[in-house]
């Protein structure tokens, strides 16, 4: 095959904790998927191996492909790993006097976030997270802005000068300023920045300066500080990884500017000043890809499920929209940086299987083998068996076809580890132990799916479900069994679906600011226009910041369109909701009425109309600006339907699989040889170099014209 035959247009990369996935999409929606082990020390190496693997299936070279690519989108783990492993760069912090113990006292919620409900009830189990910045690198200076932005106590400038001097003596790598209520009035932080620059000029020593009021001007000083620390501690040092990937692309002839998936669901330039928004990118890409597919297939309600090597990530699309969390938790740290709402548990294909020595019960995760995969990986150094080891032992995985045969898996090693560490302690054989581990994990996943849907007040019968990630097709049928979803979708490119989703994201920047704007229940038209004027001014300011970001990438202000949004709540209630405004420049009272009506409608969908309290009025807590420019997006495959009977070329014979306590013959099929319209009956295993798709005995899988399998449970 030649490059001309495929006309590659879009490249997307997802460097996960275990494997690096790439997908190259041509102008007709055709795709090729590459996989390679992630190389955490230099993600560009894993990317290059993965792209070589993917393009190899088209029999084309990267040198011939990259010059024709219109876009390249990346999601990686370097920043998140720096947070998880606390291996970022240490700097100094200057705060309002009296707040020097921010990071040691935290907020109560941060000490138990991500805990089980039973552990949340017992304070003895609550643990303070380890501070990123030690106490001796934090200084307090006297100053105070009140909640309305008025100066209550002037800035003690000499204290700032002394604090900067002392911290520079500690050889800090950067300096952060985070003053109380600086989002309402940034004059003290700006003056402190000027003083710090004066001190650095006098000493001939420069370090980057970060102002909380510039990076995240929203309420919540502790979470705001965490967000700024994430930027300085983890995001900034990780730029080197992104530059390494961009350099690799340029060496291969690429002319595009690399973009990175951001937590809010859009993509931003790899050279953006604010990279902390890309901390969680791969799982977000999956949700955006699912939303893209759902819109193409006219699906309003969709459960998005992603099984990777380390975790199971779940998100809901309801009434064609996903939720945005304004205060997400990342690695047990609270941030006030908006992110697509995700629920995650530590249960992936690389999760360790172990026996609790106290209860003698089997446990799954949350620890994971990561890029080492499992004991079966002869090139790795894993001692604890994983779910992948179990799947291999049960005959579900083909030891000679993992990553297309590029990575050798040792079935005997997996069996020995499971016998020694699991089966012998439970008094069962290795196969029953392996199947028990897989059943336990799939049961946990099913409970997570049910809880997410029922918790919204819906039932699975109101939703379809999509399964993706390298491990999604392996386990999907078991965690949807008997839940009666409207449809269960498994894309043929499930292994690289999160990468595909990154390519589906808009090129956009999201900026927001706290405004705390009351909207009374019975405002006169003149009062409505006073509210509108404040909103218009804030949206205009946000657009200026957004345009500045795009101008660095060569776009003009005229290229940028602004989607104005707000976070809003009923007066007296605690939870805010994000709603779109009818225009970025409100000129009529009726347009403000429309904004309120949008909130009322969204509130009724998320909660219930009976909980509404419009008689008290509303509060607009944040103004949000989302700026976009036009970009290329991938085509969804659309091919002609063939017969239900699969072609002979797809048949690979049978393989014994340990299923429900017995050995059974499973039909083996090559996924890339199956044609649209083919129907596969269980028990079958559909293999590709990138993933394995299991069709149980009581299921069928129909491949549609978009190369998406529809998994159906019989009876």
Give me a quick take on this structure.
By secondary structure, the chain is α+β, with helices and mostly antiparallel strands.
Strand-helix topology:
Blueprint: H1 3-6, E1 8-15, E2 19-26, E3 31-37, H2 43-56, H3 62-65, E4 71-75, H4 78-85, E5 92-96, H5 102-105, H6 108-112, H7 117-120, E6 138-141, E7 144-145, E8 151-153, H8 157-169, E9 175-178, H9 187-203, E10 209-211, H10 212-215, H11 221-235, H12 239-251, E11 259-261, E12 267-269, H13 282-296, E13 302-307, E14 312-318, E15 321-322, E16 324-325, E17 329-330, E18 333-334, E19 339-340, E20 343-345, E21 351-355, E22 362-368, H14 387-393, H15 411-426, H16 430-455, E23 464-468, H17 472-480, E24 488-491, H18 497-504, E25 507-519, H19 525-552, E26 561-570, E27 577-580, H20 589-606, E28 618-629, E29 651-659, E30 662-670, E31 679-681, E32 684-687, E33 692-695, E34 699-703, E35 708-713
Parallel strand pairs: 1-4, 4-11, 5-6, 5-9, 9-10, 13-23, 23-24, 30-32
Antiparallel strand pairs: 1-2, 2-3, 7-8, 11-12, 13-14, 14-15, 14-20, 16-19, 17-18, 21-22, 24-35, 25-28, 26-27, 26-28, 29-30, 31-34, 32-33, 34-35
Helix pairs in contact: 2-12, 4-11, 8-9, 13-18, 14-15, 14-16, 15-16, 16-17
């Amino acid at each position: 095959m030649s490059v001309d035959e495929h006309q590659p247009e879009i490249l997307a990369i997802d460097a996960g904790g275990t494997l690096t996935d790439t997908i190259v999409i041509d102008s007709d929606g055709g795709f090729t998927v590459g996989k390679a082990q992630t190389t955490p020390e230099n993600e560009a190496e894993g990317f290059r191996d993965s792209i070589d693997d993917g393009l190899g299936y088209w029999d084309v070279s990267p040198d011939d492909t990259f010059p024709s690519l219109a876009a390249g989108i990346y999601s990686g783990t370097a920043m998140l790993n720096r947070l998880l492993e606390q291996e970022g760069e240490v700097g100094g912090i200057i705060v309002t006097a009296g707040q020097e113990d921010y990071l040691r006292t935290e907020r109560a919620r941060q000490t138990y976030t991500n805990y089980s409900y039973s552990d949340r009830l017992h304070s003895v189990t609550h643990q303070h997270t380890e501070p990123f910045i030690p106490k001796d690198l934090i200084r307090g200076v006297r100053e105070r802005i009140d909640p309305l932005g008025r100066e209550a106590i002037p800035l003690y400038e000499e204290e700032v000068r002394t604090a900067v001097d002392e911290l520079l003596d500690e050889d800090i790598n950067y300096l952060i300023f985070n003053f109380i209520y600086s989002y309402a009035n940034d004059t003290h932080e700006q003056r402190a920045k000027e003083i710090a620059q004066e001190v650095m000029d006098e000493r001939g020593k420069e370090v980057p300066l970060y102002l909380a009021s510039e990076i995240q001007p929203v309420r919540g000083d502790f979470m705001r500080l965490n967000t700024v620390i994430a930027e300085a501690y983890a995001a900034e040092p990780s730029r080197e990884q992104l530059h390494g990937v961009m350099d690799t692309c340029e060496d291969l002839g690429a002319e595009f500017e690399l973009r990175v998936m951001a937590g809010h669901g859009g993509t931003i330039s790899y050279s953006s000043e604010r990279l902390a928004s890309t901390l969680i990118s791969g799982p977000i890409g999956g949700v955006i890809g699912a939303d893209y597919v759902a819109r193409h297939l006219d699906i309003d309600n969709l459960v998005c499920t992603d099984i990777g090597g380390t975790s199971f990530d779940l998100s809901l699309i309801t009434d064609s929209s996903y939720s945005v969390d304004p205060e997400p938790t990342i690695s047990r740290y609270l941030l006030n940086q908006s992110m697509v709402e995700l629920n995650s548990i530590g249960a992936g294909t690389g999760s360790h299987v172990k026996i609790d020595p106290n209860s003698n019960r089997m446990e799954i995760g949350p620890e994971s083998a990561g890029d080492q995969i499992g004991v079966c990986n002869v090139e790795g150094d894993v001692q604890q068996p994983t779910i992948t080891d179990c799947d291999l032992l049960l005959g579900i995985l083909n030891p000679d076809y993992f990553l297309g045969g590029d990575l050798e898996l040792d079935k005997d090693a997996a069996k020995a580890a499971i016998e020694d560490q699991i089966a012998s302690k439970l008094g069962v054989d290795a196969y029953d132990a392996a199947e028990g581990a897989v059943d336990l994990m799939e049961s946990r996943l099913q409970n997570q799916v049910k809880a997410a849907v029922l918790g919204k007040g819906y039932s699975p019968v109101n939703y379809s479900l999509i399964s993706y990630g390298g491990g999604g097709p392996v386990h999907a049928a078991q965690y949807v069994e008997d839940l009666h979803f409207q449809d269960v979708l498994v894309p043929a490119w499930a292994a690289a679906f999160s990468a595909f989703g990154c390519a589906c994201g808009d090129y956009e920047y999201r900026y927001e600011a706290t405004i705390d704007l009351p909207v009374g229940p019975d405002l006169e038209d003149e009062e409505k226009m006073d509210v509108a004027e404040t909103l218009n001014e804030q949206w205009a300011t946000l657009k200026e910041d957004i345009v500045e970001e795009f101008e660095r990438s060569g776009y003009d202000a005229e290229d940028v369109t602004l989607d104005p949004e707000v976070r809003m709540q009923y007066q007296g209630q605690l939870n805010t909701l994000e709603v779109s405004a009818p225009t970025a420049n409100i000129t009529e009272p009726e347009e403000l009425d429309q904004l309120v009506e949008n909130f009322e409608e969204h509130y009724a969908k998320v909660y219930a109309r009976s909980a509404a309290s419009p008689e008290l009025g509303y509060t607009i807590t944040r103004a949000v600006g989302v700026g976009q420019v036009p970009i290329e997006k991938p085509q969804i495959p659309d091919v002609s339907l063939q017969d239900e009977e699969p072609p002979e070329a797809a048949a690979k014979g049978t393989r014994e699989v340990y299923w429900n306590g017995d050995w059974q013959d499973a039909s083996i099929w090559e996924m890339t040889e199956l044609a649209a319209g083919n129907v596969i009956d269980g028990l079958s295993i559909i293999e590709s170099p990138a993933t394995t798709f299991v069709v149980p005995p009581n299921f069928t899988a129909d491949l549609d014209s978009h190369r998406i399998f529809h998994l159906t449970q019989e009876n």
